[in-house]
Amino acid sequence: MSDYVCEELIVEIFTRLPPKSLLRFRSLSKSLFNCISSPDFIRMHTFRSPKKVIFKHGNSLYNKDTEKFYTLFKEDELALCLERGYIGTTTTVPYPCSTSFRTVGSCNGTFCLKTNTKKGFSLWNPSIRRKLNAPDCPGACELHLGGTGFGFDRMSDDYKIVCLSLMRHITFVYAVKTGTWCEIASPRPEFDHVLYEAVSLNGVLHWEVHYFKYLHSYILTFDLSSHVFGMIPLPASTRHWLTTGVTTIQGCFALISYIRDVDDTCIRVWRDASWSVVFKLGTGQLPIDGALQPNNGDLLLDIYSKGLHVFNPKTQVPPRVININVASREMHFHQCIETLHLLDIGDTACEKNPL
C-alpha cells in the first residue's frame, strides 16, 4: 500500500477506523503492525474516536449475583432513540468477569472493574476485548479501604488506580506500566467517610468526603501526574441538600443534589472556581444515581429503582421514562469511546461474543 499512498495519508485514514478493523489490518504487514500498535497512533486514534454510551444490564433487579451484560450505542443513534422514547436493541455482550462486580471508573474507553469477592482490580477494554488483572492492593485485608478511583495520567501516558485507606490515612496508587503499588500520605484535614467513587476529569480524580460525622464535607481531588491532593469546598447551604450522585456535565465536575426544603433535584457544576446550578430537574424525592448529556443536549438520568429517564432542559418538562428493548433492567451507564488501549498489555478476555 505504501507504494501507492504516502505513509502520512495511511495513518490519517487508519486513525479514523474502528478498532475491530485495525486489529485485522495489523496482520497485513509488519510495518502496519508496528504503526497500529505504537503509542503515538493509539493516542491519535483515541483523540479522533467518536463518543458512545455503554449501558450495564442485569437479568434481575434484586439478585446481585445475576449475569451482567452490556449494550453500546453511538451518541447520534442514542439521541434519536431518546427523541422516540424507546431504545431498541438485541445485541448484548457479557462482561468478562464474575457476576458480582462494580465499575470503579472509566477513561479512554477502558474500564476499571472490582469484584465484590476479591480485593483485586481488572482493567477492561470492551472495544478490543482486552483485560488486565492488577495485583491486590497492599494490606487490603487489614486496612479499611474507603474511596477508589481510576484515571489516565497524560504526563506519563499511563493508567492509575487509587485507593484511599481510612484507618491509617494513607493512599495507595497503582501504575499499569510498572505494575506496582506505591504508598503516599493522605491529606489533612483527615476524612472518616468517602461517599462516592471518584470521577475522573482531565487527569484529576474527584471524591466527595466527610469528616467528624458528616459535620464537614468537601470535594477531595487527586492529580494523577503530581500525586498532589487538593480540596474544593461545597456550596454554603449543604444542610439543605443531599448529594445523590457525582458526574461530569459540559466538561466540568458536577454534583447531583436533592434539595430537601423544596423537594427538588438539581445539578451543580464547578466552573471558574465557583458552583452554579445548571439544571433543575423537578424529580421530587427520586434519587438520581447518574447523569450524562449526549450531543443532542438532553440529559440522560439513571433514577434509582425507576430506570432510565430523559430530561429536556429547554422545555423543563419533568423527566420521562425511556423504554429499553432487552430482557433486563437497565442498571447504569457510562460515556466511552472505542480505543486500542491495552492492546499489547492485557490478555484476550473470555466472552461469549468475541471479536
Description of the molecule:
- This protein is mainly beta and 355 residues long.
- Helix content is 12%, strand content 45%.
- The chain contains five helices and 28 strands.
- It has helices at residues 7-14, 19-25, 30-37, 39-48, 75-84; strands spanning 51-58, 68-74, 86-88, 93-94, 101-107, 110-115, 121-125, 130-134, 145-153, 158-165, 170-175, 180-185, 193-194, 199-201, 204-211, 216-223, 229-233, 241-249, 252-259, 264-271, 274-280, 288-292, 299-303, 307-311, 320-321, 323-325, 329-337, 347-348.
- A five-stranded antiparallel sheet has the order 5-6-7-8-28, with no helix packed on it. Strands 13, 14, 15, 16 and 17 form a five-stranded antiparallel sheet that branches. A four-stranded antiparallel sheet has the order 4-2-1-27.
- The relative contact order is 0.16.
- The mean pLDDT is 82.
Secondary structure layout plus pairing:
Layout: H1 7-14, H2 19-25, H3 30-37, H4 39-48, E1 51-58, E2 68-74, H5 75-84, E3 86-88, E4 93-94, E5 101-107, E6 110-115, E7 121-125, E8 130-134, E9 145-153, E10 158-165, E11 170-175, E12 180-185, E13 193-194, E14 199-201, E15 204-211, E16 216-223, E17 229-233, E18 241-249, E19 252-259, E20 264-271, E21 274-280, E22 288-292, E23 299-303, E24 307-311, E25 320-321, E26 323-325, E27 329-337, E28 347-348
Parallel strand pairs: 3-26
Antiparallel strand pairs: 1-2, 1-27, 2-4, 5-6, 6-7, 7-8, 8-28, 9-10, 10-11, 11-12, 13-15, 14-15, 15-16, 16-17, 18-19, 19-20, 20-21, 22-23, 23-24, 24-25
